Task: structure prediction
Amino acid sequence: MLIGVIADDFTGASDIANTLARGIASEGGIRTAQYAGIPDHEAPRDIDAGVISLKSRSAPVDEAVAQSLDALAWLLDQGCRQIVFKYCSTFDSTPDGNIGPVASALAGALGTKGVVVCPAFPATGRTVFQGRLFVGDRLLNESGLQNHPLTPMTDPDIRRVLASQIAGTVGHIPYPVVTEGNVRIAEEVKRCAEDADFIVVDAAVDADLLNIGAALADAPLVTGSSGIALGLPGNLISRGLARRSCFEAPAVNGPGAILAGSCSGATLGQIAHHETRHPVYPIDVPAVLSGHITADTLVSFITSHVDRAPLIYSSGRPEAVKALQESFGREAIAARLDDLFARTAQTLLQKGYRRLVVAGGETSGAVAQAIARCLGHPAMMIGAEIDPGVPVLTLGKTEPVALALKSGNFGAGNFFEKALAVMAGER
Result:
């Protein structure tokens, strides 16, 4: 294994695994596997990049740091030459972390400084200019992310947000320097590293990310969204260290279902679209907390609509979610819903369901971990891309299971039905 990725949530892990497996058209990607947590066994020898999925984004800081350092140790044991700390392209974090503390811990363990910070992902409208993060044509704090139920983002200045989370210093490479190409970027990274522990780098288009990636070919630690990995496979392929990946995931048939826990505007729109043609079940959160809605309730609904792409969801409008959190507690709701979705997924697997589409980072983590436990924690291989940033993941060989783990804001309006079709090899 040459590149090791530590991702702070499961949908983000799928996103960057997809980026590494695809690369760019002229070069191709590298053979990539995703893991549901830290493996307790060695990686297959033919894997070039391994992505460890953690649920550390909203965990207590100490716990997030400890998990990330354990992941780092495993990746280094597999021979990784470069580590990537992957976080959301909207820099989702609380004022205390966890991005800054985890990045600092990783840098300390690797003995490096001048670490690049670049959450840009132009393919999904995330760009960094003058150190500030934009979502489309709006600053981060005006994009709706200021209302995120777990990590509300109220400051678009990544330099300021990061500086508030770490004890070190933060530098900046502005856009005009980035447009001068990879050699110039590398020179500026080296210069900034003399004084700065971390360096926020502007990026507006994919070409910027490719130049940043080329400039970081020998960097022991890189941090950013999945976009930062766009140029990394080419570094290995051009040096003869890895061959272009030719993995093709098998088509997976059998019953399928959709589990949605995201509260993003995109997911709410996708649910509304899906409801016009398919059966949908909204989860009543108070009923879950009182025990009136259980995994058996949800499984009964899904199995009564087999082959009709049934969807269950706990998603809601920001104001409704906030009211529930104030009444019952954010942590209590999150824990019960995670457990509910995990138990539902396990039961569906036992009943022969082999295609599951999941929306939302926390929900995806709960479901993926539950499925991995049932199957003995195999590597999840990266298959066809459904929509930008969301691949099909396949687990197992004799009776493979297909998963799609969708970040809240990703995907087209018809994503859910499209995902099930792609898993079956129909598109």
User: Anything to note?
Assistant: The first helix runs from residue 10 to 22.
